[in-house]
Amino acid sequence: MEWREISSSVIARVAYDERSGTLLIEFRSGSFYDYFDVPRNIYQELIEAASAGTYFAENIRGVYRFTRT
Hints:
This protein has helices spanning 40-48, 52-59, and strands spanning 4-5, 11-17, 22-27, 32-35, 66-68. It has 2 helices and 5 strands, in the order ββββααβ. By secondary structure, the chain is of the alpha+beta class. The protein is 25% helix and 32% strand. The protein is globular and about 30 Å long. Strands 1-2-3-4-5 form a 5-stranded antiparallel sheet, covered by helices on one side.
């Protein structure tokens, strides 16, 4: 699993585990969250989004189970 930096004022970097469908997000605040059962296309759309923060708010937050790590 490899971290990718994101050009975002909200998200610092993300990583995705193909086997488990876990999306890891490090926010600029320093917080780390793991989101579970996330389809690969959601990860792909997040890293390609014009605004990663907006995409996250509309398509990930409140949709997938998560834990703060």
